[in-house]
């Protein structure tokens, strides 16, 4: 099942394609949220801090793989929009080999340098062994992350955002059940949460790959298709590496912030771990909307539909603004109640710090919503270098302000650095889009 996003009403096309992505990512987030809730409730605040600290490292490494897959999917979408099936087949095979080899290298390096990574992250000695135990198990499942993200990006590039959702729902349910069984029944502690996650990831990844091989004619290869086309390799590498750089810069900045947060002690670490989960879950729909928007832009670029791209930009601004106003109000009003999902109500200090973070950052969700839209737009038209620039501005300011002001003004400086980074990046991003729209009008 594929979907041509170059036809029909622009707003309906984007929303109908984005909804399965959003629902799917809700279940994707349940992997880590389930770990955090069960670990926080049944093991304690220290274990929650360990999982939260590990999460930042894991997201950084997997973001490199995700960025490679997302970049390759832009090539797939453009070929699909242009109806060039031969080039599509060649790019699918070439990208799989290319990204697969990089994944193997990342996996080996991550396992070999685990201690060095944890020392760089200022991991407290009291948590060091727990964090290492959890993270090593997750690292062994990185290949499943590649398989799942590659085939999901392939499906989405040809307009199918529903099937990845189905496999994610199944995997999320398995993950939650295994979390409960491994932690509360078998008493495996933090390791049980890690085992539950990689088993669920493995199931979703392998299931998605099998579906693609059975249902997608685009990957029914003949012998003549199983070769690396150097020209296409350069094209895929260009898109993939630039997108991966953008994703890794984004998450490396977050990694540096996590290192700074770790220096404030276990209570702040636990508060940050819970608040960031709520934060990322709240604005996750606009992140997925940006990814759907990227596919919409890429297909229409391949089809030469510049006016349709302009209309899609206008519709997206309205949708993002409305959603973010609603979700910001919910998070501000219920910030303390949301924190108690992850931590016992008796942990008053942790809840207070987490609630403070949410009340500052959530007011500005519309800024990150626009930024995700800009990322999708520039990735879709092939100007990934602009996405990288926006990421450097956003995260560079966030890290710089945090490290500069936190020693004087405390943890609050880290919270305020986040919307400031979003705002400046948005100003730059919108100036480039205005230039693009002016060219269309001419």
Descriptive tags:
MATE_fam; about 450 residues; single chain; antiporter activity; mainly alpha; about 0% strand
Any chance you could write out the topology, listing elements then pairs?
Elements: H1 10-42, H2 45-81, H3 85-112, H4 114-120, H5 125-139, H6 142-157, H7 162-185, H8 190-215, H9 230-262, H10 266-302, H11 306-333, H12 335-339, H13 348-361, H14 365-380, H15 384-409, H16 411-441
Helix pairs in contact: 1-2, 1-7, 1-8, 1-10, 2-3, 2-5, 2-6, 2-9, 2-10, 3-6, 3-9, 5-8, 6-8, 7-8, 9-15, 10-11, 10-13, 10-14, 11-14, 13-16, 14-15, 14-16, 15-16
Main location: membrane
GO molecular function, one term: antiporter activity
InterPro entries: MATE_fam, MATE_MdtK, MdtK-like
The helix fraction, in percent, is over 70%
Topology order in helix (H) and strand (E) letters: HHHHHHHHHHHHHHHH
Overall tally of structural domains = 1
- Mean pLDDT, all residues: 82
Proportion of β residues?
under 5%
GO molecular function: antiporter activity; xenobiotic transmembrane transporter activity
Protein name: Probable multidrug resistance protein NorM
GO cellular component, one term: plasma membrane
Organism: Clostridium sulfidigenes
Q: Could you explain how this protein is built, in words?
A:
With about 450 residues, the chain is mainly α. It has one domain (about 10-440). It has 16 helices and no strands. The protein has helices spanning about 10-40, 45-80, 85-110, 115-120, 125-140, 140-155, 160-185, 190-215, 230-260, 265-300, 305-335, 335-340, 350-360, 365-380, 385-410, 410-440. Helix 1 packs antiparallel against helix 2 (about 45-80). The protein is globular, with a radius of gyration of 21 Å. The two termini are about 35 Å apart.
